[in-house]
Design a protein that fits this description.
The chain has 500 residues and is an alpha/beta fold. The protein has 18 helices and 18 strands. The chain folds into four domains: 85 residues, Barwin-like endoglucanases (Beta Barrel); 61 residues, Transferase, Pyrimidine Nucleoside Phosphorylase, Chain A, domain 3 (Up-down Bundle); 199 residues, Nucleoside phosphorylase/phosphoribosyltransferase catalytic domain (Pyrimidine Nucleoside Phosphorylase, Chain A, domain 2, 3-Layer(aba) Sandwich), CATH 3.40.1030; 82 residues, Pyrimidine nucleoside phosphorylase-like, C-terminal domain (Aldehyde Oxidoreductase, domain 3, Alpha-Beta Complex). The strands form five sheets. The protein has a six-stranded mixed barrel. Strands 12-15-17-13 form a four-stranded antiparallel sheet. A three-stranded parallel sheet has the order 7-10-11, sandwiched between helices. A hairpin with a 2-residue loop joins strand 3 and strand 4. It is globular, with a radius of gyration of 24 Å. 50% of the residues are buried. This is Putative thymidine phosphorylase. Belongs to the thymidine/pyrimidine-nucleoside phosphorylase family. Type 2 subfamily. One of its GO terms (biological process) is pyrimidine nucleobase metabolic process. Keywords: Glycosyltransferase, Transferase.
């Protein structure tokens, strides 16, 4: 063997593996033979002092990858900042230090502070495989994390990435627990609070399981992928921002854990609290309002679940030195008219522009949340929020924020639209949040920005047979067809009963 036996040229695979570093090697490459590398082997790759650990996928065909070349997935390529012609060094990594802590938790043990920090450190450094992370997420599912463990995990997640400091004075923030389609209050709330003269540097997420996240909706109106320096310039100029948190390195372990949680579909109160509060703490928020919709098809389904989650949020926020308030809201039915990034953006703008046809429920919810945040800052709550919205100050501040983030643009509309009508006459008594959200996702949301669902009837409305209940908006005929097929199958998203 030569001195270069552990090295191979690197090329991009141009494959999106969603935050998971993957390396591709041909089955006949000398490293696979000499080092015993096989499919799913964890491999450490070093280049110019940078190291990552990637999962191996073995190529068996002859056409795509030469035997003596390694290809990196998009995530691995970006993490290594590879230049053309680069040659990487490959080796077996040391076993992750946190493996014993994960194993102990799987068998019913408790996590201490050192164990939490080891797990989060190994997660951020990508030393844990998806199997390791899956075992950890599973061991935390349900109520398997107590409050002390949740606090330790939150602190570890907060400290694993960047932390923003906005100086003295209250830094306001809000978060919605989720599960309620169309509940896009954040752009309105940020505009009101910033117009009131308070600091509200809002970082938001893209959709995980919903038809739109706040960042998805905001992105159809203004750029959201700002770095820390650009974000700071916006906040210093306008008092607030609405930016995507994924590019700011705030609680980076959270995004990696969410990638595992999403396909497993496990609910963990402890992981939810750690996710929310670690990002708020890293973003420098001192006063946090949690909007908690409660309803049978929302994420929080009962008063008992809401009380349990509220207690844990309050306890962990106290340990982090944050002032926290819980705002319980009705989670029984979608909010506004639009479900999907552009459709929700149209609703947001209608409220800010004081359009007579703006959805009244979205306006009321935004005023409730903004008022509660202003109360936390010691000002005149909801009345002040209504004055700022109705007088146009909130709209002006929102447009200024959009301009500072890179420029405002009007949201577009989908080329394919088809109504779904009532099968019978009667009164609408319920709307299934989950089914209506799935229809919006099948139509293409959030990836297709103008796709989704627009409601034409609400709970309490009386409808005639054949009257439109909602319309499906899609950018392609195929996605429109998939959404309509699902809407016609099984139980209806709208419950229509005889009028009393």
């Amino acid at each position: 063997m030569t001195e270069q036996h552990d090295r191979m040229p690197l090329v991009p695979a141009n494959i999106d593996t969603y935050r998971h570093p993957v390396v591709y090697m041909h089955e006949d490459c000398h490293l696979c033979r000499s080092e015993g590398f096989t499919t799913q082997t964890r491999i450490e790759i070093e280049l110019d002092g940078k190291r990552i650990i990637a999962t191996l996928n073995v190529i068996t065909g002859e056409d795509w990858l030469p035997p003596e070349t390694a290809a990196l997935s998009n995530t691995a390529w970006e993490a290594m900042t590879v230049q053309p012609g680069a040659v990487g060094r490959f080796s077996h990594p040391e076993p992750p230090a946190s493996a014993s802590s994960i194993r102990a938790k799987v068998y019913g043990g408790r996590l201490d502070e050192d164990g939490c920090r080891a797990i989060i450190s190994d997660t951020v450094q990508r030393r844990l495989s998806d199997l390791d992370l899956g075992a950890f997420v599973t061991s935390c599912a349900g109520d398997r994390l107590d409050t002390a463990e949740t606090t330790a995990l939150t602190l570890a997640m907060r400290d694993a990435g960047a932390r923003l400091d906005w100086g003295a004075g209250p830094v306001l923030d809000k978060h919605c627990v989720g599960g309620l389609p169309g509940n896009r209050t954040t752009p309105i709330v940020v505009a009101i609070v910033a117009a009131a003269g308070h600091l509200i540097p809002k970082t938001s997420s893209r959709a995980i399981t919903s038809p739109a996240g706040t960042a998805d909706t905001m992105e159809v109106m203004a750029p959201v992928a700002l770095d820390q320096s650009a974000m700071r310039r916006v906040v210093e100029a306008e008092g607030g921002c609405i930016v995507w948190g994924g590019g700011l390195d705030l609680s980076p372990a959270d995004d990696m854990l969410i990638r595992i949680e999403r396909p497993l579909d496990f609910d963990s109160e402890g992981l939810m609290v750690a996710s929310i509060l670690s990002k708020k703490a890293a973003a420098g928020s001192s006063h946090v309002l949690i909007d908690m919709p409660v309803g049978p098809t929302a994420k929080v389904r009962s008063d008992m679940a809401a009380q349990s989650l509220s207690r844990r949020l309050t306890a962990v926020a106290g340990a982090l030195g944050q002032t926290l308030a819980i705002h319980r809201s009705d989670g029984s039915t979608p909010v506004g008219l639009g479900i999907g990034p552009a459709l929700e953006a149209h609703d947001v703008l209608a409220v800010l522009r004081r359009d007579p046809q703006a959805p009244a429920d979205l306006r009321a919810r935004a005023l409730d949340v903004a008022g509660a945040l202003l109360d936390m800052a010691g000002t005149d709550g909801r009345a002040r929020a209504a004055d700022l919205l109705d007088g146009g100050a909130a709209e002006a501040r929102f447009m200024a924020i959009c301009a500072a983030q890179g420029g405002f643009r009007e949201p577009g509309t989908a080329p394919q639209v088809s109504p779904v009508t009532a099968a019978r006459a009667g009164t609408i008594t319920a709307i299934d949040n989950r089914r209506i959200a799935k229809i919006a996702k099948l139509a293409g949301a959030p990836g297709r920005k103008t796709s989704g669902v627009r409601l034409h009837a609400r709970v309490g409305d009386t409808v005639a047979a054949g009257q439109p209940l909602f319309s499906v908006h899609a950018e392609t005929r195929g996605e429109l067809s998939w959404a309509l097929d699902y809407a016609a199958s099984g139980d209806s998203s709208f419950v229509v009963e005889d009028a009393p």
